[in-house]
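Ticket reopened. Same input as before:
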Amino acid sequence: MLDLTSVTDSARWTLGTRLAFRFAFCYFMTYALCSGIYTVWETIPWAGGYIEGCLAWPFLQAAQLLSLHVFHLHGIGTALGDNSNSGDTILNWITIGVMLALALVATLLWSALDRRRTSYPTLFGWFRFVLRLTLGVSMLSYGLDKVFLSQMPPPSLAVLNEPVGSTSPMMLLWTTIGLNPGYQIICGMAEVIAGLLILYRRTALLGAIVTAFVISNVVLYDAFFDVPVKIYATHLLLMALVVVTPDVRSLYAYFWLHQPTPPTDPWVPPTTRRGTRTAILIVEIAVVAMALGYGSYSEARDRLKFKSETRNTATFTGQWHIESARLAGKPTPLRTFDGLTITDLYISPSGGLNVRASNGTLLDGDVRFNPAVHTVKLDMGLVDHPILYTLQQPDASHLALTPIGTDTQTASALTLVRIPLPTHYPLLDRGPRLVINRMVLR
Amino acid sequence: MSELTPDAYSNQSLDFSHDPVPDPSFQPPVSSDMPTVSTPRRWSFGTRLAFRYAFCYLLIYALGCGNATLWEVIPFHIGEHLNDWTSWPFFHAAQWLGDHYFHLTGVGAKLHGTGSGDTILNWIAVGVMLVVAILATLIWTALAELSSPGRRSLAYPRLFFWFRLTIRLTLGVAMINYGLAKLFPLQMSPPYLAVLNEPLGNTSPMTMLWTLIGLNPVYEMICGAAELSAGILILFRRTGLLGELLTAFLATNIVLYNFCFDVPVKLYAAHLVLMSIALIVPDMQSLLNFFFLHRPCKPIDGWVKPARRYGLRLETICVVVVLLLAVLPEAFQLQTIYAKQLASERNPPSYTGRWHLTSATKPFLTGDGVPLSDIFFEPSGRVMFRSADNVLWRGGADRDDKKHTIQLFCLGHEGPPPLYAMTQPDPTHWILTPTGKDAKNDGTLTLLRVPLPSHYPLEDRGFHFVNEWGLER
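Engineering reply: fixed in the latest deploy. New output:
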């Protein structure tokens, strides 16, 4: 059985501990370094994205091969790409299967070949070190996303005008959290603090516990509101628990037995060489500086860029129904990847674009107006790039869009008609009030 | 390191109690079934002052706030009376101040049951408690510090013990109460028909939050289980610190929800956080030692040896009795209500749905004096009233199919709940004629059924392991 007392001693580990350690090491190191989502590689300037992509590549390719030739899947599910906004596609699940199988095989081989070693104190140090950096980086990334209000945008016009019963659970969750910037910022701060605590050796245990708490709620949200980040969130929780596990005994002694026991220590690879120790310290500081400093800088930069690019949208804010879509004189409706017809465009005051498909679902898009040269660039998820249109406004309630550039042959010319919307929404009007004499629901 | 036994540490006589000056007379007992914690004999002036103030204010609030207090566990309505008596002075003082000093008018000027814990009178009552606590602290300090200089080396180990016990019991009862209301998912009910058919922009933040949590009974039950476990952990001395930390964590999120989504339980939730922080403060040093300095230490637990051992036995009895009284009757009651709701949801009565008020001989006025426009009979058996200004009022209905009568309960409707005789000229119309002794208060209502969708995409979604797209509607 697992004997946690001995994990950190260089003395003999039990067979169960050794096996558990080997498997956890193989699986979580693979996931932490090769998952391709918010990995520690992203903190490396310039080359980080490339390294991350290279390490994730073999697993995604293997998953795609398996999906085509073993599972005989077809359609959108088998396409590799970054445009689905979902972290739980069938390929993601197969990737996890590949990693699990690989970790099992590696554990068996390792156990067969390495029968004499009875403990891995150095590897244990490396293991905890890598998981700690991974958790820290992802908590900081998600936290900063919320602190700068880019994860949950304010409710879009499309959603505000939709009956509550027609929305989806995830949209309801996103809208509720996006409704109040203060709440989102505080949630983000909690994640940032958890990330910083875990990155600082002394408070790493506390950070891992806070991370496990915060991420538990994220996992519950993802499971019950069908947010497609289930795999990643579950892995964050598992990694946090793996990091805490060796300390379960000391936590038990402190909180339940009330016996004086210090937490288990090594949070970095144990080494006596000065050079290695300095290098490890430099890596830790660099990760914090990049994840927090550069992370905040790029969030702020993206926000300002988005603001300046969408400052021209104000006059076009509202719901635009597609009155006609014609290609070379023939009616040719706009179709999404799934083959649904697009019926409406919603341009929110914040500059976001939502596209309504014929079955009622909403898709995220992007819109950039350039009134100086009368053009608009629309990304409605039709093709893999935004389409450039010339913009004419025959009257206040109509827009005529004609594709120019490379898409003239393939994209339809559009006539849009404005659908009048309410000027204000009770949901957004109600500021926080300390005194409430009567509970008013709407 | 981990091989060392507790005895090895106690020989080093490491003392991490909150006493800044270790007590030289303290000898760790060699073997004892009781926690080996020093009893600080001297508290600094600041500690004494802080303790006296926390003692006065938090005890006054815990016992006199009137919402989910410790009193409520006492059965046979005795608890309710005690609750009323202890909160009476503060609320009546608040009412008097509201009338004579703040010159309040309107709905806020009167004590009224509203479902809001943040009425102007609640705020004034908390102000009164603050002032009373400050006065009590000043008098206590003056008497204790000035009257007899020889007693300056003061500490209040016994008061400290009883103070912590009361606050722990209060928090335990509160968390158990709120936890059970979610474990039997009743606090947030499934999305109301009244809300499902409303454009999202017309709802209110609190409705959004309630709909979100009520959407998924399992999510609500997990949240409830977390609150319930915090409430049970905090009751016992051994798990007290763990329960205090968990309570502080959960209650902080509740405070954030209440402040950010305008839920009118701001005062009460904030006090739950304050109380749990007050319980954790004495253990701050040991937490710092464990989590930051990584020194072997143990929680002081706030446990101070009471002068006599019967204190400990009394504590155990209190905890067990409170636990049983807080959990069992409440769980039984909630289980009955929930079973009723489930039965109603499985087999919704024929009149479930939206009924529009087409005419009334006398307007049916809701809380703010705005006439009623729609009644929604929910599948869960609850009833929502929508007034002409689009505001929703919670309520219920009591239908008697033998006598063909229905009694409507609408929050904020003046007077006794009206009783109506029902006639149904055709399947889409209802005529409600007031009957009984209060018949003259209300008018005859004619209701028309408004057809609603048979299902809603929001509720159809379910769980998906594989998502090729994130679904947003």
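Residues 1-7 of chain A have pLDDT under 50 and may be disordered. Chain A has two domains: 4-305, 314-419. Please confirm and we'll close it.
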